[in-house]
Write a structure and sequence with these properties.
- The structure is a single chain.
- This protein is 26% helix and 19% strand.
- It has 364 residues and is an alpha+beta fold.
- The chain has a single domain, classed as Sandwich (Jelly Rolls), CATH 2.60.120.
- The strands form three sheets. An eight-stranded mixed sheet has the order 1-2-10-7-12-5-4-3. A four-stranded antiparallel sheet has the order 6-11-8-9, with no helix packed on it. A two-stranded antiparallel sheet has the order 13-14.
- Helix 3 crosses helix 6 and helix 4 packs across helix 6.
- The longest helix has 26 residues.
- It is globular.
- The relative contact order is 0.17.
- The N terminus is likely disordered.
Length: 364
Amino acid sequence: MAPVPLSPVRVGHIDDVQELRNAKPTTIPERFVRDMTERPTLATALSSTSDIPVIDFSKLIKGDKDEVHIEILKLGIACEEWGFFQVINHDIELSLLESIEKLAKEFFMLPLEEKQKYPMIPGTLQGYGQAFVFSEDQKLDWCNMFALGVEPQYIRNPKLWPTKPAKFSETVELYSKEVRALCNNLLKYIAMSLGLRQQAFEEMFGVAVQAIRMNYYPACSRPDLVLGLSPHSDGSALTVLQQGKGSSVGLQILKDNTWVPVQPIPNALVINIGDTIEVLSNGKYKSVEHRAVTHKEKDRLSLVTFYAPSYGIELGPMPEFVDESNPCKYRRYNHGEYSKHYVTSKLQGKKALDFAKIHTKISN
């Protein structure tokens, strides 16, 4: 049985981080100050980002047989060893990336009263505010969010699609359509890297669920005390991240128990494997914990697209990845139930995936 979800807590005006930053507090409010064990160690030199794999999408789509083969091998290594990679030459127009970023920034710069016309509905991930908040004493992330369900149409809440700034909603539509096509294509090559048929995931997923979330991380006078976003893995199949131009380096991934910063490549998109692919591949490809940190002087903007199976789909490890040497690690479950569990739980590393894990008893 799935855990009983906690009742979400509404976050007040005083916890809006942009408003807080504008008020120039002399100390960071206790609600945002992390326990010692959770604080980012910003002063120490973090691992190099040079090893984070880069996939050239144009070689997958337009390359000759050898180029496609090499890029698929690289993709498989990226998914198995990192769970993260950056995609260059992804065919999404630079002007569209710039437009969505500009409009997202304009939305966050609107007066608080305007943004609060689109409040985040408790227990969901749509609207403006703080997500994953379920208790009054829970630590808050140094981040404002705005999220929308995009596909299929029935998950949309039209009241949450803003009228300001102008062209915001139509640009989100266009951007989401392009990112959807990219996800669909990447999943074909990820399937091939696993030795599956190219259409394996597409046929299994049905009408894929897609959502977009915009994260705004204001500068923080004490970035060593707060987190922009708590450590977590994603419940999706794939996640696509666009890091704002000129933003500070904020994304960090947990690699070999070390937090590794992801240095943005201009015009590239960062892709990560979600819990869904981990389950389907029976742990061969793993979703990876990641978090966001803040900067003392620079604001940061990111745009995140989540791409996942239809809520009605039943998921479990594919038979191709289960044998005597690699027994079944996850039970079968309904993806809609997992999604509900995910959005009604605190962000706590990979804890959400316990929902699906088969816990084997150790005999004496």
